Every structure is written in C-alpha cells, then in structure tokens.
Amino acid sequence: MEQIGLYLGCNIPLKNPDIEQSFRKIFPALGVQPVDLEGAGCCPAWGTAPSFDLNTWCAISSRNITIAEGKNVDIMTGCNSCFGVLSEAKHFLETPATRTAVNNSLAKINREYKGTSDIYHVGHVLHKKIGLTKIRENLKYKLDGLKIAVQTGCHTLWPSDVYKVKEDNPYYPTMLKELCEVTGATVCHYSRLEGCCGMGGMRSTDAEKSLKLFKEKLLSIKEETDADMIVTTCSSCFMQFDMSQPILKGRGEIDFEPIPTFYYTQLLALAMGFEPQQVASISQIDRNPIIAEIQSDNRRIKEGM
C-alpha cells in the first residue's frame, strides 16, 4: 500500500476532527496509507511569517517538509492554505540563496531541507493518484438525482505556476467536479464558481466585507443551481459555508434554508458506507436529512452490479 504523509494543519484537527476521521477511513480503503507527521507545526499561515520575512517563513515550512523527508514520503494536506503555503515555500527554496539561509537555520535543530518530498492536496491524491475508477469501484451508495454545487477554494488554484499538481485551467476547475460526479450526483455550474468565499484573512479583519462576498457567492449557487448540497475540498471554505449561512438566515438576508455543506471526503466516506457519526457529525447546519437520503436503502449498490 502506498504511503503518504498526512499534514493536518490547524483547522481540521481543532475544529472539524470528523473531516480528519474521513481521511483515516477512506484512504486506506482506497489503497493509500496516511502516515502521521509527528511534531509538525503550523504551515505557517499567510498572516504570520509569510507576511513579513521570507526566510523565516521558508524555515518554518521547510521544517515540516523535512519531517516527511525523514519518512521518505510526500505530503498530503486537506487545507488549501497549508497546501498553498507549503507549495510556495518549496518553490522559494529552489533559489540557492534562500535554501542556504534556511538550511543554516535548520542546522541549529539538526535538520536539513533536501526538497525530496512533494506537496499534494487531498483532492489531488484522490483524482491523480487513486483515480476515479477505483473510487467508483468502492462505492456502496449511488447519489443519482442529487445536485451538488462545488467550491474548490482559492489556494489550490493560484498561483498555479508554482504548483506541481494543478488544474488544467484554474479559472474553470474540474477536479472536484469529476470527483463528485463519480458518485453519480449531478454537479451544477454557476457563474461565481472560481470566486472566493470570503474566508481567511478577510473574515478575521473585516467580517462584514467577508459576509458580503460570501452572500454573493451563495446567492449565485442558490439561484443558478438550487443544489441539494455544497461540497468543498477546503476546510476554511467548509467553515464559511457552514457557519455563515445561519448568520445570513438569522439576519433575514436570505429567504431559504441553509444548504448542507460537506468536505468532499465526508461525502465520499458516506457514499462508501462509513458511519455518519464518525465521518460527518460536526456542523452548524443540520445535515441529518441529506445524510439519510445519501445512505438510504434505495441508493445502496447491490453486490455484483
């Protein structure tokens, strides 16, 4: 079984551990064994070291990468920001002067960045390494007739020129669309597909501006798709959709019920037959009705089919 280093970041283990559990359920079942990167720290996030000192940023990021190098594995992360930060740090470390400065810092803790471990997002591993055929073969339930609006998120799309694995066209991303379609669901296009949801630095510095941007995207989804659920591969996007829809509803700014939102591996885990309490149990929006629909008896795939 292929091994890959599991870099969890901050949001998933602290706020959405059921997303982490969905990783730990589906990947071994699909032939990829996540390896814990003991001692890994913050990526670090954009608003910290990357905003004021290049070498400090790269030193902190590269320390995480050296943990994977020591285990001879690549890195897989489920956080778009972690993916972007680690990927860009790796890109900057291709510059000899930066690598020398960083390794001088790492030498103080008996580490050396070698550049042998690549950075992957969870979605990349599912789409490129495991593949749609194997995912389809492991489904226990089919999602035919259900409509999905996807939210890829920003930091797996741009800056695309520094990413090893990326979309063919970041302005029209298709990986998550195809991962959802393999379940049998219909993925509906909407005009603000590649737009930001307003999470991250904007949410922490200007919550009202963040909510305004989010509302524009949400209305695009509702009016143009009337989706049964929203599916994302970004932990920050998941939090924005799950916590901000009830806020807008409570203010009277939307006249429809909040749309259930899933991180993709949660949806896939449900379609593979794992227990909802283990893989999709934490959300502000009530997901029980759509979970019951996903795992209903009439959607169960019969053996031999």
Question: What does this protein look like?
Answer:
The chain is of the alpha/beta class. The chain contains 14 helices and eight strands. A four-stranded parallel β-sheet has the order 2-1-3-4.
List keywords for this structure.
single chain, 305 residues, alpha/beta, 4-stranded parallel beta sheet, 14 helices, 46% helix, globular
Distance between the termini: 26 Å
- Give helix % range: 40-55%
Order of helices and strands: EHHEHEHHEHHEHEHHEHEHHH
Shape descriptor: globular
Structural class: alpha/beta
Number of strands: 8
How many helices does DSSP assign?
14
What Rg do the Cα atoms give? Answer: 19 Å
Strand order of the largest sheet: 2-1-3-4
Quaternary status: single chain
Give the averaged pLDDT, no decimals.
93
In short:
With 305 residues, the protein is α/β, with parallel strands linked by helices. The protein has 14 helices and eight strands. Helix 3 (54-70) packs across helix 4 (80-92), helix 6 (122-130) crosses helix 8 and helix 10 (207-225) packs across helix 11 (235-251).
Topology, element by element:
Layout: E1 2-7, H1 11-15, H2 17-29, E2 32-36, H3 54-70, E3 75-77, H4 80-92, H5 96-106, E4 119-121, H6 122-130, H7 132-137, E5 147-151, H8 175-181, E6 186-187, H9 201-205, H10 207-225, E7 229-232, H11 235-251, E8 261-263, H12 264-271, H13 276-279, H14 288-294
Parallel strand pairs: 1-2, 1-3, 3-4, 5-6, 5-7, 7-8
